[in-house]
Amino acid sequence: MRPVVAPSLLSANFANLLPDIREMEEAGARVLHFDVMDGHFVPNITVGIPVLKSVKKVTRLPLDVHLMISNPDQMAEPFAEAGADWLTVHYESAVHLNRLLTRLNELGAKPGVALNPHTPVSVLEETLFLCHHVLIMSVNPGFGGQKFISTSFEKVRKLRDLIRSQGLQVQIEIDGGIGPDNTAAAVESGVDIIVAGSAIFHAPNPREIFRQMQQSADEIRAASPGARVPGVRT
Ligand code: DX5
Ligand code: ZN
Known about the structure:
Blueprint: E1 4-7, H1 17-27, E2 32-37, H2 49-58, E3 63-68, H3 72-81, E4 86-90, H4 97-107, E5 110-115, E6 133-137, H5 152-165, E7 171-175, H6 183-189, E8 193-196, H7 198-201, H8 206-223
Helix pairs in contact: 1-8, 3-4, 6-8
The structure holds D-xylitol-5-phosphate (DX5) and zinc ion.
């Protein structure tokens, strides 16, 4: 199955998201990444449930909601009810992660856990079986357009080994500083879901960049079909 490039709406036009969403649909996107920041867990504020509901009404694409907030134990469930198809909470801010992921699975929102750059993958040993995906932050969360942290692919490999050692089919997502130049390396390291914001939406031709990235991801996966057995469950 194919890896998926997830355009991040954080770098789209917040004054008028619809044309950017349509452009990504037409380019062949199969999921959209939606960043929620609360000005407390991260030093920036973006959008929340009302905007999620509005976006949900205008697209059939699954929405991959990334909660960079301090209180996911309280707030993740309302986001699931508002239409988050995939829902990622941060390990660093969730207090009762087992309870929260169990609940999100019950609600049918495919849950994931995000790890900040300083958090080792080993903290997920007891939690992976509850995850649809794990998001490796390859920048410190809070802003688009930051520089990729070079050790992130090594971390992806460690996560891939941990997932395999447990015989699970958890998808690996990477977020931050990804563009056409490092998409192939991301997929080679084991990434299934490639988030890209500024590389796509700040380009003169976002559609073309999306296609380049998706093609490069597909080519790498096709060249090593045994590398990942399961595909992205959308
Ligand atoms: C950053 C967000 C990312 C952001 C990535 O905290 O979680 O999803 O959109 O932006 P780029 O792709 O520009 O690094
Ligand atoms: Zn994100």
